[in-house]
Design a protein that fits this description.
By secondary structure, this protein is mainly α. It has one domain: Up-down Bundle (Growth Hormone, Chain: A). Helix content is 82%, strand content 0%. The protein has 15 helices and no strands. It is globular and about 55 Å long.
Length: 400
């Protein structure tokens, strides 16, 4: 049952910004990969590892914040995470080698993931599953705007300044979100003082979440499908700038174009939820995404993957992601209220852990061609679809 809140629009906007901290921190520095590699006298695939370490940090950090959110409420752990994010982002300004940047990006992610976990948990505090899916679509709108704005903003900064100013901008954004959280975001859950933070008790709560069939199914389906986007994030800078020869500003525009697919999808998703349920929508999007991924691989193998074709296919691929992510997230979290923090943390950990794996695979198999990025994107879509289709009996038993 939705609770009454004041300034609902402002609250949703802040939750959207909290959810977008991680994506913005990923996307804004993508145009600077080659510049950072040159500055540190290293290779682009080494710089890609700073993206992988960020994914690992987000995956690991969410397991820490989940229990804290359930015990102390939503705001205190959230504000602590934002302070960590701001501090480590500022430290990135002073790093002088790629190894330190990789470590700092891991620590930066530990701070940023507080916003991602807290925002999902707060949605569960207020909304029932079907309405939560609509709210997730609203948040996805904000998240989807970040890859439209962030690379373009990063490319614009690089035209006049060096890559350090990207991290200075991220620190400023983090500080503004911290102020909004302190003064404008009301506490949605006071916390449970009896919630134990002992490792055995925490593991017991996580086990309770993981053994729920609804959670496990939709967490895997959504996370594996979403990891195709992370493969794209890891490989897009090289493929578009080095392989196809785009400038930094052109890359920013191309990135913004394909990211607009998620904006379109999430808004359509809000409308069609009135007619179809989340499971039906996510399954259809799974089929769509697998077909597009297969077309990318076939186009590459046949030698027909020119840049306009690639751009169009990635647009269509991310269109599928815009339907899969909000619906599978809402379904995975739907069985939980009191354990919303722990469930949100596990969901985020699974999403980002698989995302770290796929981005790492793109970096590991880097061979100066689009093959690693395109192949991993295709495989993630097909594996997600296979799990979804193989679980028909379980889905039939889940009350929508």
């Amino acid at each position: 049952m939705q609770k009454t809140t004041t300034n609902r629009g402002i609250i949703l906007l802040i939750l959207g910004f909290l959810s977008a901290i991680g994506p913005f921190s990923i996307d804004m520095y993508l145009p600077a990969f080659q510049t950072i590699a040159t500055d540190f006298n290293t290779s682009v695939d080494k710089v890609q590892l700073s993206l992988t370490s960020f994914f690992i940090g987000i995956a690991f950090g969410q397991l820490i914040y989940g229990p804290l959110l359930d015990k102390y409420g939503r705001k205190k752990p959230l504000m602590a995470g934002l302070v960590i994010y701001i501090s480590t982002t500022l430290l990135c300004l002073f790093t002088r080698d790629i190894e330190h940047l990789i470590v700092l990006r891991f620590l930066q992610a530990l701070g940023s993931c507080a916003g991602m976990v807290a925002s999902r948990a707060m949605i569960q505090d207020y909304y029932e599953p079907r309405e939560a899916a609509r709210v997730f679509s609203l948040l996805m709108l904000v998240i989807a705007i970040s890859p439209i704005l962030a690379p373009s903003a990063g490319a614009l900064l690089l035209q006049y300044f060096d890559w350090h100013y990207i991290f200075a901008s991220l620190a400023t954004i983090g500080f503004l979100i911290l102020l909004a959280t302190i003064f404008l975001l009301p506490e949605s859950y006071a916390g449970d003082p009896s919630f134990s933070l002992r490792p055995k008790a925490i593991l017991g709560k996580f086990t309770e979440v993981l053994t729920n069939q609804t959670f496990l199914l939709y967490a895997l389906v959504g996370s594996i499908a979403s990891s195709g986007m992370y493969a794209y994030l890891a490989g897009s800078s090289f493929v578009m700038q080095q392989y196809f020869g785009l400038t930094q500003s052109q890359y920013g525009l191309a990135f913004a174009f394909v990211a607009s697919a998620m904006v379109i999808a999430t808004q359509i998703n809000r409308a069609i939820l009135k007619r179809w349920n989340s499971s039906q929508i996510s399954r259809s999007a799974n089929i769509w995404q697998s077909c597009i991924g297969s077309l990318m691989v076939l186009s590459l193998v046949s030698g027909n993957l020119n840049f306009p074709t690639l751009l169009g296919l990635i647009f269509l691929f991310l269109l599928g992601h815009g339907f899969i992510f909000p619906n599978t997230s809402a379904l995975a979290l739907s069985p939980f209220k009191a354990l919303a923090g722990s469930a949100s943390a596990l969901l985020g950990c699974i999403q980002m852990g698989i995302g770290a794996l796929t981005s790492g695979l793109v970096s590991y198999f880097h061979n100066d061609t689009p093959y690693p990025m395109v192949t991993v994107m295709c495989l993630t879509a097909c594996i997600s679809l296979a799990i979804h289709l193989a679980s028909k009996n379980i889905i039939a038993q889940i009350k929508q």
